[in-house]
Amino acid sequence: MVDSEKKVFRNDDVSKVTGRAKYADDYTFHGMIHAVPVYTDSVHAEIISIDTTEAETIEGVRKVLTWRDVPGLPAFGQIEKDLYIFAKDKIRYHGDVVALVVADTREIAIEASKSVQVELKELTPVLDQEKALGDNANLVHEQFKDNKVAHHHVRRGDAEGTFPQCDLIVEHEFRTSFVEHAYIEPECAFANPRTDGVIELYGTFQHPFSTRRFVSAFLKRQFADFDVYSHPVGGSFGGKDDTISAIASRAALAASILKVPVKILYDREWSFRESYKRNPYIMRYKYGLSKDGKILAINSYMLSESGAVTSTTPWSTWRSTAQCAGPYQVDNVHTDVIGVATNNVFTGAMRGFGTPQVNFAIEQMMDICAEELDIDPIEFRRINMVRQGCETITGQKLDGHKVSMEEVMDKILAESDYIENVKRNSRGQSDDDEFYGTGMAISYRGSSVGAEGLDFAACIINCQFDGSIILDTGIHENGQGSQSAMMLALAKEFDVPLSRIKYNRSSTTSIPDSGTTVATRGTMMGISAVKKASITLKKTIRDTLCDDFQCDPEDIRFEGDRLVAGSYKLSWEEAMHKMFLHRTYPFAFGEYKAPRVSWNDDIGVGDAYFTYVYSCNVVELSVNRKTGKVKLIRVTAGHDIGSAINEGMVKGQIYGGIAQGTGMALTENLIIEDGKILNPNFNKYKIPKASDIPEINAFIIENEDLSTPSGVKGIGEPATELIAAAIANAVYNATGKRQYSLPIKLEGEK
Amino acid sequence: MNAITVNGREHEFDDSMLDKKLLKYLREDLELTGTKNGCNVGACGSCTVLIDNVAKKSCVVPLSKVVGKSVTTIEGVEQADGSLHPLQQAFIDAGAVQCGFCTPGMIMKGLDLMSKNPNPDRDEIRKAFNGNLCRCTGYQQIVDAVDLYVQRQN
């Protein structure tokens, strides 16, 4: 890059490059003691007894907690209450925690944890989701008959009646695997009991408000009894919610009983063992086609492994359902997506949330069908893709924003030289050891949580007498740069320098619950709230100062760090002084409610999301015929995200999303045997390293989207949801071998 | 007693500490928390420090191996007047920071690279960072940062 290209702002960059940023384990309090979890070696068993007597006699051990010490609900969850703070009657997976050893030091606690005796009666483990579904003799949870935790469907037109009239039927099965979030900072939480009865919580929390709900339920205390702080978090990607909330609850319970600060720091191996993963999918797709290239009908049937806890599987499977046909218009669709309980590690939210899996199937089906029809795969996509004013497979008319699928695809095809490069595809024929292939994929993605749930956010702008501004929103920083994006938006609203603004170190007591920092909603919802608060604040300032200006309130403009009307000008500082002299606070609260969405789960119809991001990825790669090693050469990625607030960070999201999707496609293989993870650390579970990732050309396509006041749509998840599909298509174009499961493992020639 | 120099200051520890890992010593005994623990097995590189100017993963180095040596952590990278090292500034300008947990280790590894190869190309930069994992950035802006630093030095 050249110097002039830098276009990035972060409010936390100096603290992070100097090592001064404080993450959870960097905090310590006087008198703080430590706690560690106790696991069993079982994955499915009845608990006969838990004996903590011996452990509690060890010098330095303060207490050993089990389910008996829990005053509130034994189990809680975002949807179903089936995540146990401590296993009570049954062990359901290898990461179930039976006890917490609290001791003067972490070393003593670890040593003592070996002395907790648990008597178990082993049960038949449920380890295969295909066999688990309908196996009522072996239920993971009694309340989920057939081991089924979710079932969504789409019934549009008459798929079964249409197939006999199709010129061509194409059917394939695709599988994806468990994926670990692999945030580089492992879980840590600590609880500090305050003298006013409030328990303060610090930790690796993706969503402090979500953590508060868990802690409150387990401890049977009201929300206001907790103060959950936001501070730097070492990555999350959807992964620091349920599990860390249970860990925080254990710390809070110990702190409330022992009346001292308690820290729980996880080893990486514990993190792998206990924390949820991306849902593995089994997807059977059947396409009915006309010979001129129209998709007439789709039948898809998918199983999504939920593991031992329901977590967000009913929501991620819903997104898979609403987006089961990709960015294409299809009149006849019959889809079932089923979440299945097993005794494997549980699954939950992970960047992409049910779409990296379906896109892996859909975008390969598009290439497969095009080839069988003898139509160019780009042309085949063009024939079927969503366009302005069309109807989605859930009956939603796409007319509230610019439907830019074709624009985005054409831009990325051109930038990547795809049309030229496809001519070089080896398809298994090469004069040397390297096969070359290029592959592409497109997607559309509903922004925010859609019809999954309530969607609103809050902002507070609190201007001070000296002109400085304290900004707070209920959206949380996980490293993605959300605070910086909010600050940029506010600075733009009032045309003040960023140096005036400080982002409040937020907590659950400083601002109303604004929903979780998920679903690529943070920038869109947070900035919309900033804009709403700005409207209120501008009116307050104009109404208060218009007499000083001797003008109509609406004539006052905010420009160049001043207030201006006619020839009268006030510096921002003078204006804020005057506000206080008028005894009016330059303070505003803003709340933004997302546009209405709808869903009828009986028939699978509705306006699933209020707007969509359109994306295209093209990848070039080589495959060594002797070793089977796949080497990415170049990736070109483009996304219509409405508008970019912080360009450098948007590109950072794209690069990072590509890298995570590449890991899912090529390098990451979570080995689970008998329900136990055999490679629970980065020396054996290989996330992509710098040389695994090629140079990425990222393009931001901006069609301002007025679905929300922010004008933006978000980038976190679109960035990661289609590269695995593009890689699979490129591997086929290199080798002539279709890839039906992830991660892709190619055999070299013997 | 055994001596160790950390960021220019000399510290002493007794023989009972010789098996303690350098990372734990830095974080717990010296309260230098800028060096991070991501895996504790030497796989992720978050704990990278310089020992006698060579990058090492401090989570797997026992204190017995650093007796009499000089250790530089991220806290020792800023210049004497408190201003940022140009490599730190390049990380900022290139947008190489997201969650920031791997960043101290990346900067230490970057300093090590600069002392060994002051003019690396982008492939060499990538290779140098293969022992330092990042889950946020896809590495591109980290490579950009080192590249930018090299350009500015020249």
Element layout with pairings:
The complex is a heterodimer of chains A (750) and B (154).
Chain A: H1 13-17, E1 33-39, E2 45-51, H2 53-57, E3 61-65, E4 75-76, E5 83-84, E6 90-91, E7 97-103, H3 106-113, E8 117-122, H4 129-132, E9 148-156, H5 159-162, E10 168-175, E11 188-193, E12 199-203, H6 208-219, E13 226-228, H7 242-258, E14 262-265, H8 268-274, E15 281-289, E16 295-307, H9 313-322, E17 332-341, H10 355-373, H11 377-384, H12 405-416, H13 418-421, E18 434-446, E19 456-463, E20 469-473, H14 482-494, E21 501-503, H15 522-549, E22 557-559, E23 562-565, E24 568-571, H16 572-581, E25 587-593, E26 612-624, E27 630-640, H17 647-667, E28 672-673, E29 676-677, E30 695-701, H18 723-735
Parallel strand pairs in A: 1-14, 12-13, 16-17, 20-21, 27-30
Antiparallel strand pairs in A: 1-7, 2-6, 2-8, 3-7, 4-5, 9-17, 10-15, 11-12, 11-14, 15-16, 18-26, 19-20, 19-25, 22-23, 23-24, 26-27, 28-29
Chain B: E1 2-6, E2 9-13, H1 22-29, E3 48-51, E4 54-57, E5 70-72, H2 86-93, H3 103-116, H4 122-128, H5 140-153
Parallel strand pairs in B: 1-5
Antiparallel strand pairs in B: 1-2, 3-4, 3-5
Helix pairs in contact in B: 2-5
Task: Provide a descriptive summary of the structure in words.
The complex is a heterodimer of chains A (750) and B (154). Chain A is an alpha+beta fold. Chain A has 18 helices and 30 strands. In chain A, the strands form eight sheets. A seven-stranded mixed beta sheet of chain A has the order 3-7-1-14-11-12-13. In chain A, strands 9-17-16-15-10 form a five-stranded mixed beta sheet. In chain A, strands 18-26-27-30 form a four-stranded mixed beta sheet, sandwiched between helices. A five-stranded mixed beta sheet of chain B has the order 2-1-5-3-4, with helices on one face. Chain B has 154 residues and is α+β, with helices and mostly antiparallel strands. The model of chain B has no long low-confidence stretch (mean pLDDT 97). At the A-B interface, helix 1 and helix 17 of A face helix 2, helix 3, helix 4 and helix 5 of B.
